[in-house]
Write a structure and sequence with these properties.
single chain; 185 residues; 2 strands
Length: 185
């Protein structure tokens, strides 16, 4: 899982390298607005005709990326370090798969450490089923109804309803008879 995430982290670091140079902070509003110059970014990279990257930059996910990562003062993470310091290393590793795999594993280990800062505390969240548990049937029996208790509850309900003020309609409620079967008509 972490190695796949590390591969995508490298991919996005390569795709978005230099994005910070195309950010502009506009302070005409009460809260600053961050604007990304897509044309400048694509022009600097020589990718103006690249349909894929243009669609990525026009997507909502990239807009969220810019608003989240655009502010100049915020906590940095592994992605920021990759974009800022490791781009040359990533380029150098393109022709050398063993070095690339080594770097991916290092990134995966860093991702794991970021998510689990105290590895000795880590535990298995879902316990393993016991041996033979798949053979057992886990159906709880339906509880038996206590007839005496049901009669007591009915009597209590009747006593409360008789003590309550009568409704506007004077007719007592009763069970509607089913009537003769339809075949008789």
């Amino acid at each position: 899982d972490k190695e796949v995430r590390a591969i995508f982290l490298r991919l996005f670091a390569q795709l978005f390298q230099g994005y910070r140079s195309c950010l502009q902070l506009i302070r005409i509003h009460a809260e600053p607005v961050i604007h990304f110059h897509k044309a400048a970014f694509l022009g600097q990279r020589g990718l103006i005709e690249n349909d894929f990257l243009t669609k990525v930059l026009n997507g909502m996910a990239f807009a969220g990326f810019v608003s989240e990562r655009g502010p100049p003062f915020r906590a940095c993470d592994l992605f920021d370090e990759l974009v800022a310091f490791e781009v040359e290393r990533i380029k150098a590793e393109e022709g050398n798969p063993p070095k690339m795999i080594k770097h991916v594993r290092e990134l995966a280990e860093q991702l794991f450490k970021n998510e689990n800062p105290n590895p000795h505390i880590a535990f298995q969240k879902v316990p393993r089923p016991t041996e033979g548990s798949h053979l057992r049937v886990h159906i709880l029996p339906f509880p038996r109804i206590n007839e005496c208790r049901v009669q007591e509850l009915l009597q209590e309900g009747l006593a409360r309803s008789q003590g309550a003020p009568s409704a506007t309609r004077g007719d007592k409620k009763c069970v509607v008879p089913a009537g003769p079967p339809v075949g008789m008509f």
